[in-house]
Amino acid sequence: MPKQKHIPVLASEVLDYLQPKKGERYLDLTAGYGGHSSLILDKIGEKGQAVLVDRDEEAIKTLKSVFAGKENVRFIHDDFLTASKQLASEGEKFDVILADLGVSSEHLNNQMRGFSFMNEGPLDMRMDPREKTTAADLINESSEDEMVKILKKYGELANAKKVAKHIIENRPYQTTTELAETVAQVVRRKKRTHPATEVFQAIRIAVNKELELLTSSLPIWIELLNTKGRLGVISFHSLEDRLVKQAFQEYGGERYDARLQIVTKKPVMSSDNEVVFNPRARSAKLRVAQRK
Ligand SMILES: C[S@@+](CC[C@H](N)C(=O)[O-])C[C@H]1O[C@@H](n2cnc3c(N)ncnc32)[C@H](O)[C@@H]1O
User: Fold this and answer.
1) Whose CA is nearest to atom 8 of ligand 1?
2) pLDDT, tens digit, for every residue of 113-136?
3) In this structure, are 172 and 35 located in the same domain?
């Protein structure tokens, strides 16, 4: 079967809720392979301005070729916290901001990036290979306490202690399949998911500092919005969704000094139809807020 290319999730919902219009300014914090960006750039037209951010060099290379010749598009190869701080320091403001969190299908499909437990590859998992710590470093060098914390906090494993102990007893690891097989010895398969799903999620979140970056970035994104500007965040697990919900509640609501109006009282989810042709969409949740 051919490997699936990255299909933008919740594409029509993103357009409906973020309402990009001709001449507006758009910031995509996780531009990836340009799926959402293409749709939004079409709406804002040549008079609109776009800044596309990604921490992955391959994604930036693809974006530069997809949008070659477009003078209204700027690219930033950095993590979204660093990029957001830079844009704020330049005094930039945007009408539409989108963050579609997590990994892309290209990450999962390229076994050399080490994200997939299905295909053998080096235990890497860095979205930005300029970062120092790989998944192998983390797994081979963490103490048992650190490993338990990672598995509990980022993988929400009920039996984190038992799994951490077993992982540590079988060190060192070089490849994704070595780790996946070791985990499968102590974790039972849940329904259709591979036993190593949560462990791989936990390690990936830790390697890429995903939750720390999101927590620190959300307040800056709100500041980067123009009045009436819309911020949309698509998350893929409850840990991220909780952080987005909390930030929206903290800055939103009816208080006189609230900066945000929450547009989606409940997260918007994919239709059954979308999930059929894009299984990755199953766990996607979109939350949108508007700057007052
Ligand atoms: C789900 S994909 C985005 C796909 C994109 N919306 C599209 O339609 O093509 C997530 C992308 O965000 C990038 N990414 C994840 N976390 C990031 C971060 N903290 N800073 C910058 N980019 C990040 C990943 O490298 C990946 O390319």
Assistant:
1) 35
2) 999 998 999 999 999 999 999 999
3) no
Instruction: Specify the amino acid at residue 190.
Output: K
Atom of ligand 1 nearest to the CA of 79: 20
Residue 170, number of CB atoms within 10 A of its CB: 15
Are 91 and 218 found together in one domain? yes
Residue ranges in the chain modelled with pLDDT below 70: 1-5
Among candidate residues 207, 235, 255, the one where a domain is terminated? 207
Query: Amino acid identity of 194?
Result: H
Q: Is residue 167 part of a domain?
A: yes
In a domain, 127, yes or no: no
Name every protein residue with a CB atom under 6 angstroms from any ligand 1 atom: 6, 8, 30-36, 53-56, 59, 79-80, 100, 102, 104, 127, 213
* Residue 283: HSE in the Cβ half-sphere, 13 Å Cα cutoff: 10
d(CA 112, CA 62): 18
pLDDT tens, residue by residue, 231-245: 999 999 999 999 999
Domain that holds residue 42: 11-105+210-291
